[in-house]
Amino acid sequence: MRNHSRREVLRLAGAAAGAAAFGASINTSRAASMNVRIGWQPTLNGARYFVAQHEGLFTANGLNVEAIKFTSGPAYFSAFLSKSIDVGFMGTPPAVVGIAQGVPMQIFAIENYAPGSEALVARKGSGINALKDMKGKRIATKRGTSGDYALQMGLKKAGLTLSDITFLDIDVSALIPAFTRGDIDAGWYWEPWQGEMIQAGGKQIATDGEVGVAGGIVWVAQTDWLAQNGEIVERLLKAVDEATAVIAKDPQKAASYIVADMGVTQDLALRVLTKEATWPTMKQTWEPGYPLSINPASIRSDKGLIDALSRQAEFQKNQGSLKTSPDFAKAIETKYVAQFIGAKA
Amino acid sequence: MLLLWELLTDGTHTISTKFLASPVGIAEEFVTLLRTGYAGTPLWDHFAASLGRTLSGYLLSAVVAIPVGLWMGLNPYVRAVLSPLFNLMRPVPAIALIPVMVLWFGIGETSKIFVIFLASFLYVVLNTSSGVATIPEGLIRAAINLGANRAQLFRYVIFPAAMPSIMTGLKTGLAVSWAVVVAAELIAAQKGLGYMIEDAATFYRINDVYVGVILIGVIGLFMGASLEAIERRVMHWAGKS
């Protein structure tokens, strides 16, 4: 009689355990299937995205990513307007333009701070060895990009104005042929184009950081989607944060992922990852002293990210490209990073 | 239709002006551009730059393509060599050629005019060639029987008979030239309507994009109509028996 009831108990226990395990597996598989449409672009500064993809960090954190490629920041604007993508990353200049022009997008995290990954590179034989040597020369950049802003700041620092140079508005597709032919004397561009110009015999004259231009890549999301999908955002932040550790601990491996995705050299990828730019953890971006800080206290006192954005907007407004310099505080959503690091602590 | 468009956007806000600019918004922006120019350059200069490149590339293509096309039409061996080559080149989009164009021709006007030249050339030459190749044998035999020599045959039979095809090629070539100028101006242009459109898109100045697109459409229409008027004068016999 006792054996019989013990077997019964065991069988019931076994059934209960089985049911619990089955229920748990349903929960996990439901959790593993959260879909997100990420817009990506081939910039070395978005390194953590590529690392996360290759290391399977998105899947490991329960995200099913549909990856959509864009050629540059401005290309995202229509996608956000038509809700064709949920989230993406872009440089601070296009982020400024999009927000100022009323595109429904908000910044919710910092990807990197890149003071050295963009610079003025001069052609061999151009006679340019310092910023002041730009006078009377043909200098190229792409209007509206961080390079454009940096060039203007560089001119200011050297006591020059736009009328002292021949300003050439050149897209990256035409840059390297023009550089090698000698049609331009120098160019102010971001990676990998800075590296390509150097490879073509150019010399680095000054970086963004050296002319006081704080820039980097930011994570942006469609405004409505961002408000409604906190769980997905948290998982995204976790995946990206985990990628930071990979870059820090094994930069060679991280560089190899970028080489695979963008066809640049291992040397260039490694230089960007270790010297030219820094990838902060989510916690670091919360520090008030961080150059692109998203701490609400920094936002309130016009420091960090909001300062970088406002300066860019003022510059574009003075150029006549933007009509307004908006209040960026409304465009920065800090609650998800707050929640994320709160949970970690 | 304009009224309905205006009502839907500015009037009732049924369609947000973020998706579809309103006619009044576009008109206002056009006036602003006329007054202050775009990116520090007067609107007229942008227009003149685009028109100049287009006409240069187009006229050059006509001058080269018609003789080459006639030669291809008259000589089956030349046609056998060149025709597949040109057909291979035609579908290649101008945008794909940008780095090569800059490498060969630099960032000045040459690279842009060449892209337009190439696009138009391929249409004019192939139309001219087929125009000659499809002349009815009967016409040629009749002329030879009447004692025409090679020069007379060409001047009085072949060239006029091929004219309709040549004109088709020229009309298509002009349309293609004007359409390609936008792509050509992606090659390090500093001004032009195509440049304006691409630059405005970077800054999400949608009204400026619309103005540029509409201007390109209107000017293209005008150029096409002008060419048709010329065609009617030159080929007064077309359509009559």
Sheet with the most strands, sense and barrel status of chain A: 5 strands, mixed
- Runs of chain B with pLDDT <50, length 5+? none
Rg of chain B (C-alpha, Å): 22 Å
CATH architecture of chain B: Orthogonal Bundle
Main beta sheet of chain B: none
CATH fourth-tier homologous superfamily of chain B = MetI-like
Structure description:
The complex is a heterodimer of chains A (345) and B (241). Chain A is globular and about 95 Å long. The N and C termini of chain A lie far apart (54 Å). In chain A, helix 2 (47-55) packs across helix 10 and helix 11 (251-262) packs across helix 12. Chain A has helices at 2-32, 47-55, 57-60, 76-81, 92-100, 146-157, 172-181, 193-199, 223-228, 230-249, 251-262, 266-276, 282-285, 296-300, 305-319, 335-344; strands at residues 34-40, 63-69, 87-91, 105-113, 118-122, 138-141, 166-169, 186-190, 203-207, 216-222. Chain A has a five-stranded mixed beta sheet, sandwiched between helices. Chain A has a five-stranded mixed beta sheet with strand order 7-6-8-5-9, with helices on both faces. Chain A is built from 16 helices and ten strands. With 345 residues, chain A is α/β, with parallel strands linked by helices. Chain A has two domains: 35-114 and 216-344, D-Maltodextrin-Binding Protein, domain 2; 118-211, 3-Layer(aba) Sandwich (D-Maltodextrin-Binding Protein, domain 2), CATH 3.40.190. Helices cover 50% and strands 17% of the residues of chain A. The mean pLDDT of chain B is 89. Chain B is elongated and about 75 Å long. In chain B, helix 3 runs antiparallel to helix 4 (76-89) and helix 8 runs antiparallel to helix 10. Chain B is built from ten helices and no strands. Chain B is mainly alpha-helical. Chain B is 77% helix and 0% strand. Chain B has a single domain, classed as Orthogonal Bundle (MetI-like fold).
